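Q&A log
Question type: sequence-to-structure
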Amino acid sequence: VQLQASGGGLVQTGGSPRLSCVASGRTSNNGAIGWFRQAPGKEREFLSRIRWNGANTYVADAVKGRFTISRVNAKNTVYLQMNSLKPEDTAVYYCNKLFFPTWTTDDYWGQGTLVTVSS
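Response status: OK
Response body:
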Protein backbone atom coordinates (compact mmCIF):
# COMPACT_ATOMS: atom_id res chain seq x y z
CA VAL A 1 0.00 0.00 0.00
CA GLN A 2 1.36 3.40 -0.98
CA LEU A 3 0.18 6.61 0.62
CA GLN A 4 -0.12 10.11 -0.80
CA ALA A 5 -0.64 13.10 1.46
CA SER A 6 -2.12 16.31 0.11
CA GLY A 7 -4.05 19.39 1.11
CA GLY A 8 -1.29 21.59 2.44
CA GLY A 9 -0.55 25.15 1.47
CA LEU A 10 -0.44 28.64 2.86
CA VAL A 11 -3.16 29.39 5.40
CA GLN A 12 -3.82 32.28 7.73
CA THR A 13 -3.81 32.00 11.48
CA GLY A 14 -7.14 30.55 12.54
CA GLY A 15 -7.58 28.69 9.26
CA SER A 16 -9.05 25.19 8.94
CA PRO A 17 -7.49 23.14 6.18
CA ARG A 18 -8.18 19.46 5.71
CA LEU A 19 -5.39 17.12 4.76
CA SER A 20 -6.01 13.93 2.82
CA CYS A 21 -4.06 10.68 2.78
CA VAL A 22 -5.02 8.40 -0.08
CA ALA A 23 -3.96 4.77 0.03
CA SER A 24 -3.40 2.92 -3.20
CA GLY A 25 -3.70 -0.80 -3.08
CA ARG A 26 -5.48 -3.14 -0.73
CA THR A 27 -6.02 -2.03 2.85
CA SER A 28 -6.71 -4.20 5.87
CA ASN A 29 -9.13 -3.54 8.70
CA ASN A 30 -6.28 -4.36 11.06
CA GLY A 31 -4.15 -1.70 9.47
CA ALA A 32 -4.03 1.90 10.55
CA ILE A 33 -2.95 5.29 9.31
CA GLY A 34 -1.18 7.87 11.38
CA TRP A 35 -0.59 11.56 10.84
CA PHE A 36 2.70 13.13 11.83
CA ARG A 37 4.40 16.46 11.30
CA GLN A 38 7.90 17.82 11.30
CA ALA A 39 8.59 21.49 11.83
CA PRO A 40 11.87 23.08 10.73
CA GLY A 41 14.67 22.13 13.09
CA LYS A 42 12.46 19.82 15.14
CA GLU A 43 11.89 16.09 15.37
CA ARG A 44 8.93 14.39 13.77
CA GLU A 45 5.87 14.52 15.99
CA PHE A 46 2.97 12.07 16.14
CA LEU A 47 -0.46 13.70 15.85
CA SER A 48 -3.21 11.16 15.40
CA ARG A 49 -4.10 7.67 14.21
CA ILE A 50 -7.11 5.66 13.09
CA ARG A 51 -7.64 2.09 12.02
CA TRP A 52 -9.44 1.32 8.79
CA ASN A 53 -12.24 -0.26 10.83
CA GLY A 54 -12.61 3.00 12.77
CA ALA A 55 -11.37 1.63 16.07
CA ASN A 56 -8.52 2.82 18.29
CA THR A 57 -8.76 6.42 17.19
CA TYR A 58 -6.31 8.62 19.08
CA VAL A 59 -5.35 12.26 18.98
CA ALA A 60 -2.22 13.54 20.70
CA ASP A 61 -2.71 15.98 23.57
CA ALA A 62 -0.75 18.66 21.73
CA VAL A 63 -3.49 19.02 19.10
CA LYS A 64 -6.53 17.55 20.84
CA GLY A 65 -9.55 19.76 20.47
CA ARG A 66 -8.23 21.31 17.26
CA PHE A 67 -7.42 18.32 15.03
CA THR A 68 -9.79 15.52 14.07
CA ILE A 69 -9.02 12.33 12.18
CA SER A 70 -11.51 10.43 10.06
CA ARG A 71 -11.59 7.96 7.22
CA VAL A 72 -13.73 7.04 4.21
CA ASN A 73 -13.03 3.42 3.41
CA ALA A 74 -14.76 3.57 0.04
CA LYS A 75 -12.20 6.19 -1.00
CA ASN A 76 -9.25 4.57 0.79
CA THR A 77 -8.73 7.97 2.33
CA VAL A 78 -7.89 9.22 5.80
CA TYR A 79 -8.43 12.88 6.60
CA LEU A 80 -6.93 15.21 9.15
CA GLN A 81 -9.18 18.18 9.81
CA MET A 82 -7.17 20.96 11.37
CA ASN A 83 -8.89 23.92 13.01
CA SER A 84 -7.71 27.15 14.61
CA LEU A 85 -4.27 26.89 13.14
CA LYS A 86 -1.39 28.80 14.69
CA PRO A 87 1.98 29.78 13.22
CA GLU A 88 3.59 27.03 15.32
CA ASP A 89 1.57 24.48 13.34
CA THR A 90 3.77 25.24 10.34
CA ALA A 91 5.36 21.95 9.33
CA VAL A 92 5.52 19.22 6.75
CA TYR A 93 2.65 16.85 7.48
CA TYR A 94 3.04 13.16 6.73
CA CYS A 95 0.78 10.16 6.79
CA ASN A 96 2.17 6.72 7.29
CA LYS A 97 1.04 3.18 7.81
CA LEU A 98 0.85 1.94 11.37
CA PHE A 99 0.93 -1.72 12.26
CA PHE A 100 -1.65 -2.77 14.85
CA PRO A 101 -1.23 -3.44 17.76
CA THR A 102 2.34 -2.22 18.11
CA TRP A 103 1.68 1.09 16.27
CA THR A 104 5.09 0.90 14.63
CA THR A 105 5.46 2.89 11.43
CA ASP A 106 6.45 1.86 7.96
CA ASP A 107 10.02 2.73 7.00
CA TYR A 108 8.96 4.74 3.95
CA TRP A 109 7.67 8.24 4.73
CA GLY A 110 6.94 9.86 1.40
CA GLN A 111 7.15 13.58 0.68
CA GLY A 112 4.41 14.81 2.95
CA THR A 113 2.51 18.03 2.43
CA LEU A 114 3.70 21.43 3.64
CA VAL A 115 1.39 23.57 5.74
CA THR A 116 2.52 27.13 6.32
CA VAL A 117 0.53 29.24 8.74
CA SER A 118 0.97 32.97 8.33
CA SER A 119 0.60 35.29 11.30
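Response note: Residues 92 and 112 are 6 Å apart (CA to CA).
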